[in-house]
Amino acid sequence: MTEIPMADPGVAAGERPREVTYAAFIVFLDAIAGLVSGAISYMIWEDWTAGIGVILALIAFWLYFQILKQDNQAWTLAVIFNIAAIFLYASGGIVNNSAGILLSIISVIYLNLPDVRKHFQ
Questions:
Q1: Rounded distance between C-alpha atoms, residue 55 and residue 90, angstroms
Q2: pLDDT tens-digit map of 37-94
Q3: How many CB atoms neighbour CB 40 within 10 A?
Q4: What's the pTM value of the predicted model, to 2 decimals?
Q5: Angle formed by the axes of helices 18-45 and 72-91, to 10°?
Q6: Among candidates 31, 17, 28, 30, which has minimal Cα distance to 113?
Q7: Number of other residues whose CB lies within 10 A of the CB of residue 68
Q8: Please, what is the end-to-end C-alpha distance for the chain in angstroms?
Q9: E strand segments, the chain
């Protein structure tokens, strides 16, 4: 006999799980923070790592919509980009970019929680 696929308990058919919505929102916040801090840092100090951060932030806006669609590759890219963002923020100075570092660490931890990860497999 074949098994009939069942929806997750607590999620109605056609609804997006709230873990996915929260993950997308965190990625969106990362994108805004990266764009603002990277653009300001690049305009003032002409730091090339800030330019890379701006490019990653623009890609993160696209990842936001893909995570809402529960795309596994978008989840993987979001984790990779947030790990890269930690190092990019740290290269600009830990004191100046501590909020960005903290937000990226929270994103990596949240995206890797089992309850969140299961929605992207």
A1: 17
A2: 888 888 888 878 888 888 989 999 999 999 999 999 999 999 999 999 899 888 876 6
A3: 12
A4: 0.81
A5: 30
A6: 17
A7: 17
A8: 24
A9: none
